[in-house]
Design a protein that fits this description.
- By secondary structure, this protein is of the alpha+beta class.
- 38% of the residues lie in helices and 15% in strands.
- It contains 13 helices and eleven strands.
- It has a six-stranded antiparallel sheet. It has a three-stranded antiparallel sheet with strand order 8-7-10, with no helix packed on it. A two-stranded antiparallel ribbon has the order 1-2.
- Bound molecules: 2-oxoglutaric acid.
Length: 315
């Protein structure tokens, strides 16, 4: 579990890259309770790379002071974005429009040829595949977005996932179609952006605000399990739910470890969304991708905050 140095970049440790496997092993092979596993992995990650926490906290000062969006994110666990919030996303989607259409068409064809295991949510492009869609990748690490995430965590986080998701028409009710909170850490941030317009018929991402989610989770003692609609109804919470319907380019940022949520439910039409996930570098149950392997020239255009977000750092 050492720090590898390749081409002047400090690479994520093996534990950073594969934390979820260590997490599973401790939980299932050694029956260590979840509440012990998380601090153990956090501690090990820190020991393996002790300068990271200080460095990320120091560089976080570059993220600036924040404003109303930050206040809403802290209190409610989510912020909604109109199209005007990230104009560079509009132009990136326009630039890569044909490639995106081809990728979605290919996913549709694969799904049509598949006889079993019809999935309600398919990843069309993931992680370093976005280096082939460079304007989108530039948006993913753009400062306003990364700065909001940095202020939320209080230090520069790591980009742990980028996915273009396609959810086809379906009538299943399973997995992430049921209310749940994510279990990677005590907090994390996911950004969801509509790639094409999303209506109620397209299984929009749906969330419950932080305060009501906190109450349901506290009362039910829920840790990383699904919550039924009936349980949600006991709290009169359905009318508090928010759905991410809207135009292409609109979206939201959500702490999915805090806010109960689901998506891809009851689609009569397909939905395409871009999802980004940011985690604290010590997050116990999440793997950090090897962004540096394919970053190439892309890394040259990044500032200190962005390099830390991709774990590409010249210490
Ligand atoms: O939008 C969806 O289909 C579900 C997403 C979800 O549950 C998640 O990102 O945790």
């Amino acid at each position: 579990m050492s720090i590898d140095t390749v081409a002047g970049h400090v690479q994520p440790t093996r534990l950073m890259r594969n934390a979820s496997a260590y997490h599973r092993m401790l939980r299932h092979r050694f029956a260590v309770p979840r509440k012990l596993v998380n601090p153990v992995i956090r501690g090990l990650k820190h020991i393996c790379n002790p300068s990271q926490t200080g460095k990320r906290t120091e560089v976080a000062k570059l993220a600036g002071a924040g404003g109303e969006a930050d206040r809403q994110l802290s209190s409610d666990g989510y912020v909604l974005f109109g199209r005007e919030a990230f104009p560079e996303l509009q132009s990136a989607l326009e630039t890569h429009r044909d490639e995106l259409l081809d990728l979605v068409r290919a996913a549709e064809e694969r799904a049509m040829n598949k006889t079993a295991n019809k999935q309600m949510l398919t990843t069309v492009v993931r992680n370093d595949g976005f280096f082939d869609l460079p304007d989108i990748m530039k948006f993913v690490v753009s400062r306003p977005l990364v700065d909001l995430a940095t202020r939320y965590f209080g230090r520069v986080p790591v980009l742990t996932s980028v996915s273009l998701w396609w959810s086809p028409p379906n009538d299943s009710m399973q997995q992430s179609q049921l209310y749940h909170c994510d279990g990677e850490d005590a907090r994390q941030l996911k950004f969801f952006f509509n790639v094409s317009d999303v209506t109620a018929e397209q299984g929009p991402f749906t969330l419950l605000p932080g305060e009501i989610s906190d109450r349901i989770r506290a009362a039910k003692g829920i840790v990383a399990r699904k919550v039924t609609d009936e349980e949600v109804a006991e709290f009169g919470a359905h009318e508090k739910s928010l759905t991410l319907t809207g135009k292409a380019g609109e979206g939201a940022c959500v702490d999915t470890c805090r806010c109960l949520h689901y998506g891809s439910r009851g689609n009569s039409k397909a939905r395409v969304v871009l999802m980004l996930r940011f985690n604290d570098h010590l997050a116990p149950n999440v793997d950090i991708p090897d962004w540096h392997v394919r970053a190439g020239d892309f890394a040259g255009g990044l500032d200190d905050v962005q390099k830390l977000v991709l774990g590409i750092q010249t210490d």
